[in-house]
Write a structure and sequence with these properties.
The complex is a heterodimer of chains A (430) and B (101). Chain A has 430 residues and is α/β, with parallel strands linked by helices. Chain A has 2 domains: 221 residues, 3-Layer(bba) Sandwich (FAD/NAD(P)-binding domain), CATH 3.50.50; 136 residues, FAD/NAD(P)-binding domain, CATH 3.50.50.60. Chain A contains 11 helices and 25 strands. Chain A has a 5-stranded parallel β-sheet, with helices on one face. In chain A, a hairpin with a 4-residue loop joins strand 7 and strand 8. In chain A, helix 3 packs parallel to helix 10, helix 3 packs across helix 11 and helix 7 runs parallel beside helix 8. In chain A, 48% of the residues are buried. Chain B is built from 6 helices and no strands. Chain B has 101 residues and is mainly alpha-helical. Chain B has one domain: Cytochrome c-like domain (Cytochrome Bc1 Complex, Chain D, domain 2). In chain B, helix 2 packs across helix 6 and helix 4 runs antiparallel to helix 6. The interface between A and B is large, with 65 and 43 residues.
Chain lengths: 430, 101
């Protein structure tokens, strides 16, 4: 390099530096407009897996880490089909190979601590990871502290089966071992809880199983509530398909539980009635997943208040909470809602990282329930956000399947229920 | 030759600037709307199961279908309940998005 060239080179370098500085000061660039910002997602269910995938799709340059203790996720949707013997557990379980293939860093561990001030999380193995944005999708935990006579270890005798996996298998085994003429009790919790139509689909598909294998058996629903999701449609289906088999007791008429006698498999209602059964499926009252509490992100009801446009926590900035754990306005706590929220949250994060305009959020929920393998019903809605209403249902959109519909319509919805499941699981885990 | 090296280095630096600003990702309203359809119709509308795939259909076909679902001219199980949630302009954006995938 001769003198002239060297001088010119230095000058040019300086010039480049000036250019960078004039476009964007390096300091700001690193903090808020860093194209390789680190996003950590905790929880690999429908919400977390979808959020990780869409973050990567929107901006492949992001560093995305998904932290989930299990190698495989077992879904709650279609777990009722496992209980009835229509499917096996493997057919509702999903790994994270597709995420790894996309370049998402998948870590199988739990998160024990979140330091919101230092923007660091601690893994079960003690390792600390730094983030620019954190997304929690921890699902639900149970309020055992509010259940008289039962604690978490009793779920080995009286399963909740409200998280897919070994609990699903346990309840299935108990149903298979039940004698013809026995009673199955299901006790759905008060609102809000994961998957509002879920307990009633469970009743339907267990009735289908019992009708085929143990036709003299009975199902008793001891409900904490006065009404439930898609109630007229479920009840219409039960009358038609399983006449005389299912009895529903509302909260005010003796459904509310005072305490559970685990040893004698007996439920004592607030009204003083005793109900003994061969198989009991007690679904405890719920709250946000444990890590949300550890991180101090919950309110006095046990759920996480968030900005419903971006899902950023109202407690700590740069931490987002999606899915069942979040308070998401009019949206129900469902796998589909979590999937939809995962995409909106991903859009919010990518827009914030790049300093670009976030599109107006649009959310959807669609929940199918099977009343029998060939009899499907659905509830759906489209949602938007406004500052004063939070997430609200678009007027005129949504609703439940028509009450007056022929067998073909119900059959078509049962077909779509399976198609819906194939799509939502591939959109979340594929 | 020296000049050539210098030019390459300069090009490298200026490409950094270009890529840094070029990387700014802005997510379209169309993507926001259409991604919410993927829960039932699959990512980018590529359904793996019984629900009809909608990727690669012409925009005019998708617009017409959604408007017919709205009016009931085309009978449906759930699509009428969904289509009612979108304005004409939003339907146009959704249709254009899926026509390109």
């Amino acid at each position: 390099m001769n003198t002239y060239d060297r001088r010119r080179f230095i000058k040019l370098l300086g010039g480049s530096g000036m250019m960078l500085a004039s476009f964007n000061p390096l300091t700001v660039f690193a903090q808020s407009n860093n194209p390789s910002a680190r996003v950590i997602i905790v929880g690999g269910g429908f919400g977390g897996a979808t959020c990780a995938k869409y973050l990567n799709m929107f901006d492949p340059g992001l560093s995305v880490t998904l932290i989930e203790p299990s190698k495989r996720f077992t879904s709650c949707p279609f777990s009722n089909a496992v209980l009835s013997g229509m499917r096996d557990l493997d057919s509702i379980s999903y790994g994270y190979h597709a995420h790894v293939k996309r370049g998402i860093n998948v870590v199988h561990d739990k998160v024990t601590q979140i330091d919101a001030a230092a923007k660091k999380i601690t893994l079960g193995n003690g390792e600390k990871l730094s983030y620019d944005r954190l997304v929690l999708s921890p699902g639900i935990d149970f309020r055992w502290e509010d259940v008289e006579g039962m604690n978490a270890s009793d779920m080995e005798l009286i399963p909740h089966a409200w998280q897919g996996g070994p609990q699903t298998t346990l309840l299935r085994d108990q149903l298979v071992a039940m004698k013809d003429g026995g009673t199955f009790i299901i006790a759905p919790p008060e609102n809000p809880f994961r998957c509002p139509p879920g307990p009633y689909e469970r009743v339907s598909l267990i009735a289908h199983y019992l009708q085929q294998h143990k036709p003299n058996s009975k199902i008793l629903i001891l409900d904490a509530k006065e009404k439930f999701s898609k109630q007229p449609l479920f009840m219409q289906g039960w009358e038609k398909l399983y006449p005389g088999m299912i009895e529903w007791v509302s909260g005010d008429t003796g459904g509310r539980i005072d305490h559970v006698d685990v040893k004698n498999k007996t439920i004592h209602s607030e009204s003083g009635d005793k109900h003994q059964a061969e198989v009991i499926n007690f679904i405890p009252p719920q709250k946000a997943g444990l890590i949300a509490h550890t991180a101090g992100l919950t309110n006095s009801d046990g759920w996480c208040p968030v900005n419903q446009r971006t899902f950023e926590s109202e407690v700590h900035s740069d931490i987002h909470v999606i899915g069942d754990a979040s308070i998401a306005g009019k949206m129900p706590k469902s796998g589909f809602a979590a999937n939809s929220q995962g995409k909106v949250c991903a859009a919010a994060i990518v827009s914030a990282v790049h300093g670009t305009k976030m599109p107006e959020p649009s959310y959807v929920n669609t929940c199918y329930s099977l009343v029998s393998p060939d009899y499907g019903i659905s509830v759906a809605a489209v949602y938007r956000f406004s500052d004063d209403k939070g997430i609200y249902k678009v007027e005129g959109s949504g609703g439940v399947s028509p009450k007056e519909a022929d067998a073909n319509f119900r059959k078509q919805e049962a077909r779509y229920a399976k198609g819906w499941y194939d799509s939502i699981t591939s959109d979340s885990f594929g | 030759m020296h000049i050539k090296i210098t030019a390459t280095i300069l090009l490298f630096f200026s490409s950094l600037v270009v890529s840094a600003t070029g990387l700014a990702v802005e997510i379209s309203q169309a993507a926001m709307l259409a991604n919410s359809c993927a829960g039932c119709h699959g990512t980018y509308g590529k359904s793996p199961g019984a629900i009809p795939a909608i990727n690669g259909k012409s925009a005019s076909f998708i617009v017409e279908s959604l408007k017919d679902f709205q009016s009931g001219a085309r009978p449906s199980t759930v699509m009428g309940r969904h289509a009612n949630g979108y304005s004409d302009q939003e339907i146009q954006l959704i249709a254009e998005f899926f026509s390109k995938h």
